[in-house]
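re: ur question from earlier - yeah i can do the single chain one, its not a big deal. heres the input i used so u can compare w yours
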Amino acid sequence: MDSQPLRRRRALVLPLGLALTASLAVLPGVSSALAQDSSDSKSGEKLSYVVNTGTDAATLKRVQKAVTEADGSVVTTHKKIGVIVAHSANPEFGETLRAVDGVDSAGATRTAPLASSARTDVGKPEYIKDPKAMAAKLAEKNGPTVREGAAAGKTEPLESLQWDIPAIKADKAHRVSQGSDKVTVAVIDTGVDDTHPDLKPNFAAGQSANCVGGTPDTSPGAWRPYEEGGSYHGTHVAGTVAAPRNDVGIAGVAPGAQVASIKVSEQGSSLFYAEAVVCAFAFAAEKGVEVTNNSYYVDPWLYNCPDQADQAAIAEAVGRAAEYAEDKGVLNVASAGNSSHDLAADEIVDDTSPNDSTPAERTIDPAECLDVPAQLPGVVTVSATGADPLKSYYSNYGEGVIDVAAPGGDKYQVPGGDAKNGGILSTMPDGDYAYLQGTSMAAPHVSGVAALVKSKHPKATPQEIQWRLKAWSDNPGCPTEPYDPDGDGDVDAECAGHDKVNSFYGYGIVDALDAVRK
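and the output i got, formated as tokens:
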């Protein structure tokens, strides 16, 4: 996630360099007759598979038996959505299972052997070297700033560096309401450091788990990031969602809400595979989570095409899980991605997939080959903006694809005042703070506003919350000048639509103040 545009997954975290959303509904051509991907397991290489079946007991039992007979082992079975996770080193496993009566689709979730991520952040994080010293310097310069209303008291020590908070009127919203501790946003990501002093007060351990491998591990601390490998992404996302107003560091968008961690990234690679993401959506649904934040795309395919058996199975499995969560009252929010792709274009060149082995260039139709989970049905797809506000240079866009926009940061859009960094400042493991940029940073702003909406309207359904997010957003409209963020004279994207709804911002940039007063 550092030097490469981390899949859409981590909602594009452009660590001040750079830092994933659509719905599945019915995928054309998803059936057992689809041709198998060329990335099938080689003899002796154990891969993980998803097998999508009916949910009746007889079908599940028959398919589980077929898994064993095909030299596979069942890792877990999500009975309510008919998704079986299996392991096998049989190179014919996927093809064999697709021929089994009752199997809708089946395929490998990876192209590399087991134990070999995709986030939506860009670049490397820019740390604040000494947060306490920085806070003291800001206090000496600005003096105590007092808030009024429900959030009466001083502003947070590093809040003047958070240009993104006033950009969506979250500072004003907190004078009315900071959100409810009965509302939880689950960060499906690389794990969250719940020992951070700016996260610990609002952390929901009872709704947290490690879903790597496909089964939830709820042992204490299993949800935390790996100590090695730069697994800071989830912690940064969590701070933006719900860092409390506790006079410690920063303020989250919904500082009164709870935040949970569902870890899905593989150790060493930080890849987000389908079996882990399916587990995460199911776990969130069963634990009563209200919102999930998805700043990533499901590896190893940036886009999952219905005419490729493995990719079709991945999209169907994750789509079933996301729909199950939504049916249980969960609103799913995802980053749009950092590839500067027009997701409504006739075709897109993808030269990054599969990202766990050897990528090969291919041309895909984004109307059929989906960025998962961003383009799954019912998911709120979020593009990123900078301080101006203007679409961030890296952010994906697309008419009819983007639902709303939010601050994700942009190195070309430098804010004034104390915040002279175009990235998003948030929490990092071990008590640190750093700037990052990417659609990965934009999605948690929307998740936070969604938490504020749910707090104000506790009976609102996911569909109603999404409607409110759109209705209350503020749309800058398409730029009046050619879109050339780096100033090199080349037009980098064309905005389509009108002042109310367009390809850059969807319905607009989310408004936290309206979320708590309407």
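The two ends are 38 Å apart (CA to CA). not sure if urs matches, ping me
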